[in-house]
Amino acid sequence: MREEFQRTLVLVSVSLGNSGDLTVRAKRLLEYCDVLIGEELKTTSTLLKSLSISKQFLLCNEHTTPEEIRSLGQTVVDSGLTVLISDAGTPGIEDPGRELVGEVLRRGGNVRSAPGPTAFGAALSISGFKTSPFTFCGFLSRDSSERKMELSRYLKPGHTIVFYETPYRYKAVLRDLDSVLVGMGEDRTIFFCLDLTLDSEFQFRGKLGELLKILDTLPKGNPVVVLSQRKEQLNQRSFSKGDKKPSFKRFKK
């Protein structure tokens, strides 16, 4: 496998949480790569141990400095096959891997993909909402006032929108979202999920006001939020039942 890759960074998708979703190709790349770059020490070590792979690795995360990104980029172009993984899902999407990709390309290296799960794609696919067009917002601002301005801007075109949030901040963000929707006179259906693919997965479909009623009972979890297109753009037959009664689902063994 090493002979197939020179000066190449391969972005390898890992599971969102359910280890059974890791592909055979991903396992082979992790096993045979010349250089491995992970996101966090504990998560990467746990993954390698679960696959019975003994390998040293470098890190690229939110604490990685621009100088360290440049050094990692040089390492890639000086090597054969380098694999980049994130803690969950696909690297390069809302994580520092994006900066490393740019650095490798600037240095004349190659970038390839070993695709797999992405949280926003998984959430969109099971939301039941129209997905063309949609806007992916990534993570919103930590500041409430800035976050509300961002939400207003993303909501204005009327597309389906999807965004990530942290386990520690999502409740405040959902309350800000409700405030913005009320202020804009919007009445959209929301699909909210926690811990996609895990036994603890939680799903909600309905109006945001109904979700807010149970918000304080929900665990921290890793959330993805999907908002439907504007009411006049929705397929009413698809959502008439959901509009009348919210849907809650918990998935446990």
TrEMBL record:
It comes from the Bacteria. Residues 8-211 form the Tetrapyrrole methylase domain. The keyword Zinc-finger does not apply. SUPFAM superfamilies: Tetrapyrrole methylase. GO terms for molecular function: methyltransferase activity. Keywords: Cytoplasm, Methyltransferase, rRNA processing, S-adenosyl-L-methionine, Transferase. Pfam families: TP_methylase. One of its GO terms (biological process) is rRNA processing. This is S-adenosylmethionine-dependent methyltransferase, YraL family.
